[in-house]
Write a structure and sequence with these properties.
Layout: E1 8-16, E2 19-24, E3 27-33, H1 35-45, E4 49-54, H2 57-60, H3 66-72, E5 80-83, H4 89-97, E6 102-105, H5 107-111, H6 114-123, E7 128-138, E8 141-146, E9 151-156, H7 157-167, E10 171-176, H8 188-195, E11 202-205, H9 212-219, E12 225-228, H10 230-233, H11 239-248
Parallel strand pairs: 1-4, 1-12, 4-5, 5-6, 6-7, 7-10, 10-11, 11-12
Antiparallel strand pairs: 1-2, 2-3, 7-8, 8-9
Length: about 260
């Protein structure tokens, strides 16, 4: 798949209330700023897609991003994935009607795997992203966490992603809880294990510290896309920087001219 498709460069925005936030291991959330300003900046830098995750939606039982998404789609013209607190087909419908192109589900899907099929049957597999928060338990063994990394599920990551794809998931957003916010690079073993187990695209998330980590995620992890947060939020690199280093390494990325 890598040879046929461009590697997508994805900006990830974790939201709490009105604020863009960032944590380490999904904890210690720190306010970064206005999500709309950051999203627009990443769009102008040439992000192929944006992912919005409501970091506390599971606590409150609903997603609060509708207004943010409605405003974003006025100025941002790349696909938007929205996750957090989506517990029903009705929740997914509301988010998609706000302007999202895809919905990401985690906690509710683990509790009720049939939800995957229900959303996929209504909107298509391409709309359903499985958000996986993976915690390493032993060598080459990872457990699925839910509730934004707060709860253990008892589910093995590889078994879960395989089942989820069979149920209709069209893409996997794979976040290493161990690496998230650490700047230590992606968990390449995790990426490789998942990408070898499924036929749908896998987005690497959690741990990007330097530009070359994107190359590692693709070449050694088998990722189809790379999600970035910390490296962009703290202005340690731009999307264009990542695009250039990927291109120099021979990876296929979308051509983009800044306007």
């Amino acid at each position: 798949m890598k040879s046929e498709s461009n590697i997508r460069l994805v900006a990830r925005l974790d939201i709490k209330g009105p604020n863009l936030i960032k944590g380490v291991h999904l904890e210690g959330l720190r306010v970064i700023g206005d999500p709309e300003e950051h999203a627009y900046r990443y769009y102008k830098q040439g992000a192929d897609e944006l992912v919005y995750m409501d970091a506390v939606a599971s606590l409150y039982g609903r997603n609060h991003l509708s207004e943010i998404i409605k405003n974003a789609v006025k100025n941002i013209f790349v696909p938007l994935t929205v996750g957090g607190g989506i517990r029903s087909v009705e929740d997914a419908t509301a988010v998609l009607r706000s302007g999202a192109d895809k919905v990401a589900i985690n906690t509710a899907a683990v509790a009720n795997p049939k939800l995957i099929t229900q959303i996929a049957e209504k909107f298509g597999n391409q709309c359903v992203v499985l958000s996986v928060e993976a915690k390493q338990m032993s060598n080459k063994i990872w457990e699925v966490l839910t509730e934004n990394g707060r709860e253990r599920s008892g589910r093995d990551v590889i078994e879960w992603v395989t089942e989820a794809v069979d149920r209709g998931v069209g893409e996997i957003l794979l976040t290493s809880v161990d690496r998230e916010g650490t700047r230590k690079g992606f968990d390449v073993d995790l990426l490789h294990a998942v990408s070898q187990s499924v036929t749908v695209p896998v987005i690497a998330s959690g741990g990007m510290g330097k530009l070359e980590d994107a190359i590692d995620a693709v070449n050694n992890g088998g990722a189809d896309a790379v999600a970035m947060a910390d490296i962009l939020h703290y202005e340690r690199a731009t999307i264009e920087d990542v695009r250039n280093v990927c291109r120099s390494a021979g990876l296929k990325v979308r051509s983009y001219e800044q306007t």
